[in-house]
């Protein structure tokens, strides 16, 4: 029987108010630096529930990440606004039909959302034009700063808010995205607390998987144990990403576990397992991979590879500190792995030469790591003026996704 | 410790070949009856993997249901075709880039899909125009019958297949959808076998939830137990729908459990639970609801309501047989419930009068049931010529979704 020391924490909604303050500070600084009028409204549209193809099957909704960052709203169909001059925050809730109460649940009154999400004002979505015109037009039509920009991980563009009557406002598509994205890079203490908790849940769940794994089981049974431990004891309904429960040769497939490679192999005695799984709590995620022999005992080849990775991991951790370049840490990891493989006579030759030829990428085709937050690959980290760092990082990761 | 007698069955891919045969028979009969040329190609496009909003977070893919019905393909990015004259079935697989093997898994050769999915021919998606022109143009440009029609449950339209070069063919948007939809209504023995298995899994998982439920737990912990039992022991990675784990007053909300009402109440001594959960196996689903007191003992009010529903349930089952009208069974259920409530002096008056005024809809706002298959609300069942039945059913369900 599984046991757990987890205690799902109350979610501090002040966290999202803190995120809004961070955005306000950054936006005001930007407007000041560009000698622009110190006003306007940052307006975001939350996600909508989606049906699966043409059916009425509703996918379990998870809020769009930028909207979650600023407002923490779990429900679909919202808009959110922040008035740059006053700092006021406004939520616009969907007006639900009366039979929603029979089918979907209690129709919450507006003050419920004001209290829950710690915003200054709440209206209905169908009031958005009137509210913005009546309350925020003392300096003429307010400029709406909309979220539009490219995700450097997916290549997809965020969809700017749209609503009936938006043509009555001036809109700005270029300002908000880069500024908000950089806000997300440095986490507050409250954000770190949630990320820590999600990682605590995942650690415990990984250990439970490790305890139960044995030859003859299926990979998906390990996934199920992880999901169950995270949800039952950790209150994590979502994972940060689809569980990667790879054993045997599957362990070499970085993003194994999806529908076309669905964790369906039978575990053998002598297999290594590579378990890459992370739970999510109140939007904040985790990302933990661990490798171990299914039968509980490393053979010598397994130990060699494991120790090479461990040595690289420890080398990077001991060198990490403010001011150190990411790219140098990536190279340190590659070099440490190559040295270990050379010591074990798995590869031969001059390490400096191997580094020049990027041989390390054969053994570590992915990046050293990535930012973690509301997205597993949290955005940002390429501030203007640091093109050199971005270029170097991009080169290292050329033709690769981040893992 | 949970135990299980479940043994996930091999999936018979002949099932989908059987579904294709059913479609062929129906299409040929239709073309014959309308004196149309007995040829053309039914062409469907499978689903694509979706990222979450602008991020690179990939949602776990589940195949589009019509495509799953005909081809059983679990992977995204496919097209499938059936040549009406010859009966040949053709799959078109996406051509994957070489680094797919590093990131996503082994690139399966075309014969793998031919063998796995029991089709006659397999090509790449980028060969679709050439294949259709070279092999199926002996009578001139083949007509492509594309899937386009409205889901009566969601009001959404299915998206017809599209690909570069489709303008080189004649296309027909009206024929395939109603015919294929009606094919899905009557299930084959193999389909029934999978539906039975999914229901067996769900039954066992419901019983496990019932065993473990007790005051002080959270509703989501019951959901987690169900999901875990279905996946770990039943190999069911998907559910037919989001789990509804409703206790106390939540039990009166028909589709509780979604993100805005997320199974987060604490169970109290004295609560009734309404658990509406169903696992899915190889696309085929289940849908089981059971109600019981969390502390294991009905109080007299709970027993009254439970028995009223049970009596209606048993009345319908004992009257069901070929030729009986659905609407009459719905009315029988309503009348039986009203009679029970009158006997218990919860309502007063003339039952016939209550029936005329549709008082039953207050206590049973949903339909009596629905078709079940690859979708939880499986489509079809409104064959042409039965408008009367449809009208009556629609009236009964006026302003309501099916549950």
UniProtKB/TrEMBL annotation, chains A, B:
GO biological process entries: proteolysis
Keyword Hydrolase: yes
Keywords, ordered alphabetically: Dipeptidase, Hydrolase, Manganese, Metal-binding, Metalloprotease, Protease
SMART domains hit by this protein: AMP_N (SM01011)
InterPro entries for the chain: Aminopep_P_N, Creatin/AminoP/Spt16_N, Creatinase/aminopeptidase-like, Pept_M24, X-Pro_dipept-like
Record-annotated Aminopeptidase P N-terminal domain positions: 11-155
Cofactor or coenzyme needed: Mn(2+)
EC number: 3.4.13.9
SUPFAM superfamilies per UniProt: Creatinase/aminopeptidase, Creatinase/prolidase N-terminal domain
Coiled coil region boundaries: none
Reaction equations catalysed: Xaa-L-Pro dipeptide + H2O = an L-alpha-amino acid + L-proline
Enzyme class: hydrolase
GO molecular function, a single term: metalloaminopeptidase activity
Similarity annotation: Belongs to the peptidase M24B family. Eukaryotic-type prolidase subfamily.
Known partners and oligomeric status: Homodimer.
Annotated protein name in UniProt: Xaa-Pro dipeptidase
């Amino acid at each position: 029987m599984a046991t757990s020391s987890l205690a799902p924490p109350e979610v501090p909604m002040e966290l999202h108010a803190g995120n809004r303050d961070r955005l306000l500070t950054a936006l005001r600084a930007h407007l000041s630096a560009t000698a622009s009028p110190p006003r306007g409204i940052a307006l975001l549209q939350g996600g909508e529930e989606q049906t699966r193809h043409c059916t009425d099957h509703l996918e379990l909704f998870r809020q769009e990440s930028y909207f979650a960052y600023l407002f923490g709203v779990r429900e679909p169909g919202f808009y959110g606004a922040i008035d740059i001059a006053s700092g006021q925050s406004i939520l616009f809730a969907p007006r639900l039909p009366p039979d929603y109460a029979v089918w979907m649940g209690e129709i919450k009154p507006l003050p419920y959302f004001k209290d829950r999400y710690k915003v200054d004002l709440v209206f209905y979505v169908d009031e958005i034009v009137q509210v913005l015109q009546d309350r925020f037009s003392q300096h003429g039509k307010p400029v709406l700063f909309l979220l539009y920009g490219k995700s450097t991980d997916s290549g997809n563009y965020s969809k700017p808010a749209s609503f009936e009557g938006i043509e009555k406002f001036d809109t700005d598509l270029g300002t908000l995205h880069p500024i908000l994205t950089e806000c997300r890079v440095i986490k507050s203490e409250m954000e770190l607390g949630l990320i820590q908790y999600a990682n605590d849940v995942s650690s415990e769940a990984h250990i439970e998987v490790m305890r139960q794994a044995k030859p003859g089981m299926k990979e998906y049974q390990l996934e199920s144990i992880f999901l169950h431990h995270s949800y039952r004891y950790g209150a994590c309904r979502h994972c940060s990403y689809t569980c990667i429960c790879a054993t045997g040769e599957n362990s070499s497939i970085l993003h194994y576990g999806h529908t076309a490679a669905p964790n369906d192999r039978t575990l053998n005695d002598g297999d290594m397992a590579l378990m890459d799984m992370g739970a999510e709590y109140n939007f904040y995620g985790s990302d933990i991979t661990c490798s171990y022999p299914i039968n509980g005992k490393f053979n010598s080849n397994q130990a060699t590879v494991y120790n090479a990775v461990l040595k690289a991991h420890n080398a990077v951790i001991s060198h990490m500190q403010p001011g150190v370049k990411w790219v140098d840490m990536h190279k340190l990891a590659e070099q440490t792995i190559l040295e270990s493989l050379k010591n074990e006579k798995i590869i031969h030759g001059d390490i400096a030469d191997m580094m020049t030829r990027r041989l390390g990428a054969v053994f570590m085709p992915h990046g050293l790591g990535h930012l973690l937050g509301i997205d597993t690959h949290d955005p940002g980290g390429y501030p203007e003026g640091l093109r050199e760092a971005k270029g170097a990082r991009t080169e290292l990761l050329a033709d690769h996704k981040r893992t």
